[in-house]
Fold this protein.
Amino acid sequence: MSETATDPVTRDAVRAADRAHVFHSWSAQDLIDPLPVAGAQGSYLWDYDGNRYLDFSSALVYTNLGYQHPKVVAAVQEQAGRLCTLAPGLAAEPRSEAARLIAERTPGDLDKIFFTNGGAEAVENAVRMARLHTGRPKVLSSYRSYHGATAGAINLTGDPRRWASDTGTAGTVHFWGPFLYRSPFHATTEAEECERALRHLEDTIVFEGPATVAAVVLETVPGSSGVLVPPAGYLAGVRKLCDRYGIVFVLDEVMVGFARTGAWFAADHWDVVPDLLTFAKGVNSGYVPLGGVAISPAIAQTFATRPYPGGLTYSGHPLACAAAVGTITAMAEEGVVEHSARIGAEVLGPGLRELAERHPSVGEVRGLGTFWALEFVRDPATREPLVPYGATGGANAPVNAFAAACRKRGLWPLTTMNRTHVAPPCTLSEAEAREGLEILDEALSVTDAHMA
């Protein structure tokens, strides 16, 4: 269906079936009305009423190549014609090639790839590997983080989505990561924030007992919690602490890998090599579910003659791996990593900072590449958030009104807590970026109106 056509009959049928049978994640089922989508292409999606939306969410921050990229579609179609599926214990050409292409791009010597179906499973298996490798039970992760919704990953998560599922017995300990705008360390400079955050992490390790800590798990750039770009020296400092105490360093790159920050992996910005690196989402632009763990030689050696006690029926699914090969190849051939870096440095970053100067409800702009956040405040002097932490329902009305204003003007936003995130496809054109910035400029009048 073309993006200008209307089809109310199909729209109503899709909506009725959805409401009758689909149970949606993270939602009170009777309070939602999902948009029936008729199609999508590139940076846009459209509905059955002929409304077109510039997608500044990349679905859930994973359509890094945009919708319906022809090279990825062709790769999936070709693989489906040759071999749709194969047991994970056998060697398959698309699986081997995807692993090779990923290993070529991971930091350092992370050359072994364990495939999963998504990011949460990748985190679960990384933690399992770390515990088995070290023989230790505890895992440290930061507040203001998200690692997935499965049992272990949700307990690692440091935002309110953890609360309903937190057993308090999962062997996880949370600590404060660096975030100068809302510093838990009363820092006034990035250097102070870095030094104090590292001291706090070391104190946490020492008081928990270093011999009990298997891993420190960090999002390289925390995404859902606010696109929190770490200060210079922080990740390198965490690497040193892990080395000092024999702890496995795990970087969660599920959201930020594969061009999202203007690098193949966000760790590349700081020249840091973890022991385990998780990925998903952008590895194949989400066309077929895929995730994985990139593994260091030392941890891989642990399981050289000792079986790894974990696996998945669809690990390295041929269709998903074919999509990964198509995605990585297209990114390399089309310079998508470089494009993401340029569009962020030259268009999105400057444009968003200009919006912050015009709109007092924007307290801070943060980001890299095609990965940004605007933090909403009620008062720029006190930095009081526009809505309370973890706000829902009526308490979240100002942000909901902002999102509605964006959609009315043809922009599909990504809002979370007191922020809107700007995470369009990494292939976003300059004209599309400016179109989105203009709509944000208009919609921000809504958040300005809700200030104290």
